[in-house]
Design a protein that fits this description.
By secondary structure, the chain is mainly alpha-helical. About 60% of the residues lie in helices and about 5% in strands. The protein is built from five helices and three strands. Strand 2 and strand 3 form a beta hairpin. Helix 1 packs antiparallel against helix 2 and helix 4 crosses helix 5. The radius of gyration is 22 Å and the shape is flat.
């Protein structure tokens, strides 16, 4: 006869696997959405530019359309930070944390909190504990993979093997520098 604790652990494991699967699917859909929005914005810009070329210059109306097109171009530049298949854009000054998925933002938040409190770099085991996860190799390696991706894209620094801190210039959740 299985124990009650054993049955609870089985249900917990099944629920945790479902959550992990849904998170992965959400990240995939978020990347697809970013690519679709970028394509849409490019078509909007193309239509407006063709309209500008085909419409005779009418003074202030033309200036307003050009300004609107420039505003749209600026939106596309922000979205362009995340390439179609990339979930983590390369960090640059002025790029906000909001371009990252929630999981990546959580990793940055833990590293930023540690740095702000003067506690030094954070390990993946410490991240797992901070997120309320079981500190088991599978969880730790999943976090390490995400942290390494943030290092590769300039959001985090790895001053020592397996120890992560915000990269120079990366500010808090509100913005880039």
């Amino acid at each position: 006869m299985p124990s009650v604790v054993g049955l609870l652990e089985q249900h917990e494991l099944a629920a945790r696997r479902r959550v992990d699967g849904l998170r992965e699917e959400a990240d995939r859909i978020q990347a697809e959405l970013a690519a679709a929005e970028q394509e849409w914005q490019e078509w909007v810009i193309a239509r407006r530019r063709v309209g500008d070329v085909l419409t005779p210059d009418t003074g202030t109306a033309a200036v307003a359309v050009v300004q609107e097109t420039r505003d749209t171009d600026a939106q596309v530049v922000v979205r362009d930070a995340a390439k179609a298949k990339s979930q983590v854009p390369v960090w640059r000054e002025g790029l906000a944390w909001s371009v990252l998925s929630a999981d990546y933002q959580r990793i940055l938040q833990v590293a930023a909190d540690r740095a702000r409190l003067g506690q030094g770099p954070v390990t993946c085991q410490e991240m797992a504990a901070a997120f309320g996860m079981d500190v088991v190799p599978a969880r730790v390696e999943a976090l390490r993979s995400k942290a390494k991706r943030l290092v590769a894209r300039g959001w985090l620094a790895e001053p020592a093997a397996g120890r992560f801190t915000p990269a120079r210039g990366v500010a808090g959740p509100g913005g880039g520098s």
